[in-house]
Amino acid sequence: MSSTTLSAVRSWRPSLPRRHVPVLATLALLLVMYGVGVSQYRAFSNVQVVFNVFIDNGFMLVVAVGMTFVILTGGIDLSVGSVVAMTAMVSAALLRDGLPAGLVLVVALLIGPALGFLMGCAIHFFEIQPFIVTLAGMFFARGMCTFISDASISITDGFWTGMSQERIGNPAGNFVSISVLIAFAVVLVAAYVLAYTRFGRNVYAVGGNAQSALLMGLPVGRTRIAVYTISGLCSAIGGILLSFYTLSGAPLIAVGMELDVIAAVVIGGTVLTGGSGYVFGTVLGVLVLGVIQTLITFDGSLNSWWTKIVIGGLLFAFILLQRLIGIRFK
Amino acid sequence: MNTVADRLRPLTGHRLFWPAVVLVVMIAANTVYRPGFLAVEVKNGHLYGTPVDILRLSAPLILVALGMTLVIATGGIDLSVGSLCAISGAIACLHISGAADQNSPATVATALALAFGAALVLGAWNGVLVSVIGIQPIIATLILMVAGRGIAQLVTEGQIITINSGPYRAIGLGSFLTLPLAILIALAAALLVAAFTRRTALGLIVESVGGNAEASRLAGIRSRRVIFLVYVVSAACAAVAGFMVTANVSSADGNAAGLWIELDAILAVVIGGTSLAGGRFSLSGTVLGALIIQTLTTTVYAMNISPQTSLLFKAVVVIAVCLVQAPAFRARFRRRRRGGVEPGPAAPQREKEQVPA
Q1: Min CA distance, A3 vs chain B (Å)?
Q2: 3 state DSSP class of B41
Q3: B50 with B205: CB under 8 angstroms?
Q4: How do residues B297-329 score in pLDDT, each as one tens digit?
Q5: Which of B30, B67, B90, B117 has the CB geometry, 3.0–4.6 Å to B252, for a possible disulfide?
């Protein structure tokens, strides 16, 4: 009886659910940064600036969504940047050889998930740490890039250039690219899968405690292999979007992207030990990184290396925040 | 046949057996492909030849991998070493480039001390994040890995700083008693670490912390202090490696110096038989692992394959080594082969019984 009154008393306090704090902190950060931008630079309030953040980071958004699945299970995928590059490279090479665009799309979208599936199997069946397996995957995919070609290959295919140049806009002249719409579709599907399907709940359960999940009879192995396959698929889609964006495949493109993506996911409030986080947070995390880039571009006097330092600082702040919340919970 | 296998078991069961076989096979293949591979000659008091080059170029990797071994032995991982290499090299080169006399030993000594001190501070930062605040090592060091490249570029202002300093160049290219100075430094570091960990109880303490930090703390070991210390040591090793990398080319490039070296170092540690879960480590294995990686890289270069494609070969090596070392894989393999043959001791158990040399 007393316990019910106690919890009733506690619920009177207008407190936020603890698990929402990181996401809300990211949202606040994003609004503050946007506010700073608007107050400093007149052109910043232009709607197109916001659209450009999406256009420039659409591929990263898709990759980060895939990474969110992996990190939610408590794993990590270091291969994403290389898989993005490999997908772009394969598409460019196949298009150069004259294959039809539809076939190229299918092939390019199959390689990433296949690699992800293999990595997931190695992680699950042979109990090798995700870090090492995906590191090997990263080496493999990056090696394949230069194996295909040492130089960048430009894409002249009609479908690709069409996708690249198509502008979807409003009468005021603001526009987004098709890539942004694809990225949004991926985000919506991922959010639905995580929130409302049995698979989504399995992902959270495995990340919360794989042992308990196993004892509850959840398909831990299948879930684990599936998240790496999903991450591979998202990287492949990201690679296609990147090839739409740059209209080429370059062997050294997206080097170090996995770190930016991990940073975005963490800044978005997903806990790296797994079990807690949202796709919406990841979207915010990517936007934070995008707005930092935009602010630095607008400033003009700051150099690009400040981006890395600021991202490092934010990463630190959010990890500390998560840690503090974790301690309070205990 | 069984008796031969039994007699060889002490040898084949040794943790360094398979890495050594890989290295020998690689050298043999190289010698077949290129008969002059093993030739070494003395010119003007310097040793020349591919084996000497491999040793000299592997020195930074050996250093970084030594620090990484200790970190991994405590169950952690240090992703920031590549960035630390870049930062230490950048600070040293910046100080030398601003000096009036770049060849003066005092200038070089000050530059090295400055850069070394900065690396120790950054190592302490990693150590505090992991041991005091309790952040997962992979994430704690990820912060410095991302921000560190930015800091290195900030130090060099995005330029490549070129210097013309004899004493500094000697760290990478000089030789002492006909042997490359770089490999002597790496060797000295290896012996120093080995002496500290294997001639005192420190190694045991590190392994105990890696096995179970909480249990070690309850047993009276200051786990946090040990964990803090290994990150500082790792940063110090990375700093010296950074000096070598920048001295090799007499310039500091914030972007390229020490790029990917953390991954190579982790690879070297894993090839050397140190478990990524922590709890036991092998310094000799790490040195062997670093030599294997450098030999592989040199081989790929010699075959006129682009450096990036060498990653493809590394991927194959990583997976092969990990699979061979994975208890789950061994168990599967053994089960399949068992029919008729005597069961033999389970591999994972034997692993645990091995007392580190």
Answers
A1: 33
A2: strand
A3: no
A4: 888 887 777 777 777 888 887 787 777 767 777
A5: B90
**Which pLDDT score is estimated for B336?**
62
Measured in angstroms, the CA of B121 and the nearest CA of chain A are apart by 17
* Token pair listed for B225: 């202090």
Distance of alpha carbon A155 from alpha carbon A159, whole angstroms: 10
Q: What does residue A269 show for φ and ψ, rounded to 5 degrees?
A: 100, 0
- For chain B, report the end-to-end CA distance as a whole number of angstroms: 29
Q: How far is A123 from chain B (nearest CA, A)?
A: 10
Q: What is the CATH number of the domain that holds B257?
A: 1.10.3470
B63, B233 in Cβ contact below 8 A?
no
Domain range holding B44? 36-325
Across all residues in chain B, what is the average pLDDT? 83
The residues near A324 (Cβ < 8 Å, ≥ 6 apart) are none
Amino acid present at B332: R
Amino acid, single-letter form, for residue B275: S
Residue B47 is given by DSSP the state E
Query: Is residue B239 a part of any domain in this protein?
Result: yes
Does residue A112 surpass a pLDDT of 70?
yes
Is the distance from CB of B155 to CB of B90 less than 8 angstroms? yes
Nearest-CA neighbor of A284 among A80, A6, A22? A22
User: Rounded to an integer, what distance in angstroms lies between the CA atom of residue A130 and that of residue A127?
Assistant: 9
Q: What residue ranges define each of the domains in chain A, with the CATH number in brackets?
A: 20-328 (1.10.3470.10)
What six digits make up the tokens of A184? 């949004």
Q: What angle do CA B23, B24, B29 make, to 5 degrees?
A: 100
pLDDT digits (tens, 9 = 90+) for A276-324: 889 999 999 999 999 988 888 888 777 778 888 888 888 888 888 877 7
**Residue pLDDT, tens place only, B1-43:** 566 666 666 666 677 777 788 888 888 888 888 777 777 777 7
Which region, left, alpha or beta, applies to residue A164 given φ > 0 means left and ψ of -120 to 50 means alpha? alpha
Sign of CA dihedral A90, A126, B321, B209: positive
Number of domains in chain B: 1
Interface A-B, measured as beta-carbon pairs within 8 A, has a size of 133
Contact A319 B135 (CB under 8 A): yes
B304 touches chain A (CB under 8 A): no
Where is mean pLDDT largest: A22-26, A151-155, B109-113, B271-275?
A: B109-113
| Nearest by Cα to B75 from B221, B207, B235 | B207
Q: How many residues does chain B have?
A: 357
Residue B247 structure tokens: 């001295």
Beta carbons of A265 and B139 less than 8 angstroms apart: no
Interface test with B, best of A128, A255, A288, A301 (most B CBs within 10 A): A128
pTM: predicted TM-score of the whole model, two decimal places = 0.82
Residue B184 lies in a domain: yes
Q: Which two tokens stand for residue B315?
A: 């991927």
Model confidence pLDDT, tens digit, residues B232-261? 999 999 999 999 999 988 888 877 777 788
Q: Across-strand partners of A168?
A: A176
Q: Report how far residue A4's alpha carbon sits from residue A7's, in angstroms, rounded to the nearest whole number.
A: 5
Residues B52-68 pLDDT 10s = 888 888 999 999 999 99
Residue at B8 is within a domain = no
B350, part of any domain: no
Half-sphere exposure of B22 (CA within 13 A, CB side): 24
How many whole angstroms separate alpha carbon B20 and alpha carbon A229? 36
Neighbouring residues of A70: CB distance < 8 A, sequence distance ≥ 6 = A76, A77, A130, A227, A228, A230, A231
Instruction: Please give the C-alpha separations between residue B262 and each of B60, B78, B80, B172, B301, in angstroms, as whole numbers.
Output: 11, 8, 7, 19, 20
Report CA Rg, chain B.
Answer: 21
State the Cα–Cα distance between residues A62 and A245, nearest whole angstrom: 14
